[in-house]
Amino acid sequence: MNHPEPSIDYRSDTLTEPTPEMREAIAGAAVGDDVFAEDPTVQALQHRVAELLGKEDALFVPSGTMSNQIAVLVHCEGGDEFLCESGCHIYNYEQGAFAQLGGVVARTIDGEDGLLNVSQLVDKIRPPNAHLVRTRLVCLENTHNAAGGRIHPHEEILAIGRWAAEHDLLCHLDGARLMNAVVATGVSAADWAAPFDSVSICFSKGLGAPVGSALAGSREFIQAAHRKRKCLGGGMRQAGILAAAAQHALAHHIERLADDHAHARVLAEGLAAIDGIELLQKTPDTNIVIFRIDPALGSAHAFVSQLAEQGVKMLALTSERVRAVTHLNVDPDCVGTAVRGVEAVIENLRR
Ligand SMILES: Cc1ncc(COP(=O)(O)O)c(C=O)c1O
Q: How confident is the model at residue 6 (pLDDT cuts 50, 70, 90)?
């Protein structure tokens, strides 16, 4: 059999490459030394992000991981605890940096389909007692990656924010894919961000920039975040060439996320019709499709490696679960080829 080179790559929306127009924006960027706060493009981006998220100030950082960890390290001291959903990125996929670097602990709570609500949080605040850690912060993720790009209902987020404020808890949002939620719901970024003391957004996921995230919050919070960024080695010099890509993404790549969402729905529909595949969510909220392979057919790892031979790449999350993420570098016209590839592999595994 003649196997094509893998070319339809659904493993992650981080695989996006700068478009020619984005490369032009990068090439033309005005720059300066951002450690001296002299890079005009970084300054403009930070201003734009603060405005977009309805916060006083914002800080450009190299990655979503650094952005989240700076937030936790600014909000918490050693011996403090934050509450988060069990499947969230901050807890599972960032090496527990908050513990390594800040002596901060996390208390995970199983959400319903990855989503938390106030009733799950009410009994999780530790009483003031010298034996106990101090509950300080709530971290939410919207959209929720491991839950299949799920959107937190806005009302639930507002309710969690009210409850947290009543109990003197701070709130941080990992909004790596917040713009997906904005486009899918029509709720503005500022309205999503309003209940949070800090919000992180990523430019390097569905927005299609090569590098970068931003953290937004009060002026005082961003001053402290700026110190932490330096301490973590995140001060960048002529970072305007990266900020220009992020600015371009904010100007040109937000509305098109709707195309990724439509693409994900078509992909999910095609996969749902295949015997041996069970979708986590029949109709994905945004751009992430997660499905389970019937374990009787073999492991998800075997499935994705055979699928790659068909020219389609997906990611095995566990021995049973596979993730496919739509993004601007996968043409929606390829969806039929992808579904046929999955059908062929399942057929093969069945033999
Ligand atoms: C929800 C979420 N938060 C944070 C991150 C971390 O971003 P980065 O890879 O830029 O460190 C990711 C990365 O995929 C993510 O999916």
A: low
